[in-house]
Amino acid sequence: MNLWKNLHETFRNREMMGTIFHLAWPTVVEQALQTVVSYADTAQVGVIGANASASVGLTTSMMWLVNAPMFAVGMGFLSVISRSLGADDRQTARRAAMQAVWVTLILGIIEGIIAVSISPFLPVWLGAQEEIRRDAAIYFGIVSLPMLFRCSTILLGSVLRATKNTRTPMIFNTVMNGINIALNAILIGPAGLGVTGAAIATAVAYVVGGGLMFLSVLRSPILDLRSMPRRLEWPILKRCLSIGMPIAGERVTACLGQVLFTALIARLGTVAVAAHSIGITAEQAFYIPGYGMQTAAATLCGFSAGEKDEKKLMQYSSVICVMAVVLMGSLSTLLFFIPQVILSIFTPDAAVIALGVQLLKIVAFSEPFFAAAIIMEGVFNGVGDTKAPFAISLVTMWGIRILLTFFVVNFTDGGLPSVWLCMVGDNVTRCLLLLLRYFRGNWKQKLQLAPAE
Fold this sequence. Notes:
Strand content: under 5%
Structural class: mainly alpha
Number of domains: 1
């Protein structure tokens, strides 16, 4: 179907636009609230100084790596559950949800043990300077203790969203964020715990959020897990993991790249690490619409694939992509025109702000491309087509971002702004390759869709 006809029909279809809005706005709000907490963490720690900001920021990429398998496996369950519900196969959806509970338990315990065990050594492995190693190790260790609850928050949240219930995860994340901010205000400053206080606040919030998410999945009327056999079922688990594992590979590869990326930046000094960390945090607010709409795209495209409806699949995917690009592109103008105002929220350090201004102006131009890449990943993940996006991410992360950053750090005087240009090159190239795959359409053949008119 012609792209413009697709867009025109969908934007005029009140029912479809209402469905998009119904699913997208809670996840957008949820992402916004998480960003508020990230802003609050960074700002409250940033008051202590550049060393504290660097201590927290150093482990951010490692946090992404730890979370990557949870998000990936969660997307595998989301795809299977949403496609099963779209095909009116509720029994398969329920069985998949029960397997998600088992995977949450197993993955949460294993990752928690590993993360806590490596926390004393991680800052040294990342090449951190001596003055921030202790705080960075303590922060990572504490926030890794409730890993089971963090896994519940992420993975079981995906299960709820697969049933088109995006409000409950939003509410629970609101509660988590409120707890985090309140405890930050008490523990970082008045209690004098600094970075340790920020870590404790985050850990407590995960315990509350993960517990609430588990209870909600258990009581979901659509899934009705209390009447399901509580056992592992390898056939349905294998189906979910076959979708989730390439996503896990893509995310782990990307996050390992981020870890190495941060380690390379650490060679540029503490101010560079602090500016990089704060710049990444500041940028988060501007891709909220993209990641909020990604879940809606994955769920709706999964339902459409289950219904074998190509026309609906293409309508949802194209409209959500355009909406994300427009919103993120509009918001990114703030990154370019008022970067100093944004950065001053997080730190009073003039050197960090001056360097951060250059970074935000650079990344502002890539936000529309980043938006399209985020939605395309959601579309492919939702229909279970995950191997090609993994390959694309592998090539762009390691072939562009890491390789060029290694060259810049070791053989030029370009500094952190040049490193961020490498990051932008990765994002733009990944976007173009994903869009090329989307428009070629070969990925739809194995879905056995009813052809669009």
